[in-house]
Amino acid sequence: MNHIQSAPVKPDYLHFDPATRRVRIDPHQPEFVQNPYAAYAWLHHNARVFFWEDYGFWCFAGYDDINKLFRDRRFGREEPGGYRANAINREHLKDFDGVERHSMLEIEPPVHTRLRTLVNRAFVSRQVERLRPRIEKLANELIDGFEHQGHVDLMPAFATPIPVVVIAEMLGVPTDNAPQLLDWSHRMVNMYMHNATREVEDSANQAAKEFSDYLRDYAAQRRKNPGDDLLSLLLAAEENGAKLSEDELITTCILLLNAGHEATVNQTGNAVKSILQSGLDHRDLFATPESTAATVEESLRFDAPLHMFTRYAYNETEIAEGVILKAGEQLGLLLGSGNRDYQAFEQPDRFWPERPDQKNVSFGAGIHFCIGAPLARLEMQVSLATLFKRLPNIRFAEPPLYDDTYHFHGMQSLKLEW
């Protein structure tokens, strides 16, 4: 699909060498943090495949390329030679690496297939749908807690607690420990940001050790007293068929806790911002289950919570005309950019839930398609509908502010009033 769009102006912070297709964009540049879409729009017209110097690998900005590369088995998440096989000076990350090397996000078949098959049963749509009453009750309880104040920072008061509590309850971990789980998660996830410092690395490693120790102790309790939670199910699978090693079990639980809330927290804040700025009548947006689902899908497209996903080339491969990757080199898929590609979407910068070309790459595609997508969609459908129903006059109290956490993309604060 090719839509007509006038060529955008190049942002001052974006530097481009057309001869080499090399681009410099500091991902911490405040203008980029607050609005990366201006840069993406320029790239769509001038450099849909480019070498991002700040990251040191080739990147794809267009929807169709991203969608295809997610499914291209010449590339994958597992580092050739094994996790961090060629890394040096990582002894201080021993515990963090010990967790990550068993992550479903970092491995390929057949191990990936075995792990995903075990976990997937808890995240299929029919299982997730059973959580709807619990999510609605939780959303109402949270609003009860701040409605009388007339104002709120939505991120800590509403966007964060819902997915954290839900995933903790699914796993069977006490929700009283949610603040500690959040702390460990944030410290580990900070490792994925651009140019992580030694301080961030040390903190992430310590968090990985404490998180792992906590879950090992809890798994030992669940072995003695199993329940109907996901942790007990994974333990049973491990014991009955030796399907999961202890390390795989711990890593899978950490991944589910981290991934089970991080993106949904960001997407909830991004969605509320998008809806309020659109000027659309929220009574129409959430009038029916169908319109609610469409609003959530457009939120995922319009302002995604994850803007980059990387993959490794497994053989020397020409990825674009004149661009050859050697085995082991990475490439970057810019999800937030692909979702605003004028060649794939009519009026890509318009928040338009009823659009006829509704699609997005926010959850990925192929074998690494987000396993928690049905849960994330349900949480947002229920929580957003409840929020706008309970607080129909909600509006910005201060300009919304994004956090400097690229390639994650979410609100530092979202202060609202009514």
TrEMBL record:
**Signal peptide from the UniProt entry:** none
Which InterPro entries would you find in this protein's record? Cyt_P450, Cyt_P450_B, Cyt_P450_CS, Cyt_P450_sf
* Family statement: Belongs to the cytochrome P450 family.
Record PROSITE patterns: CYTOCHROME_P450
Q: Which UniProt keywords apply?
A: Heme, Iron, Metal-binding, Monooxygenase, Oxidoreductase
Give a Pfam family name. Answer: p450
Q: Which cofactor does it need?
A: heme
Record bears the keyword rRNA processing? no
Superkingdom of origin organism: Bacteria
- What is the name listed in the Swiss-Prot or TrEMBL entry for this protein? Cytochrome P450
Where, if anywhere, are coiled coils annotated?
none
Keyword Phosphoprotein listed? The answer is no
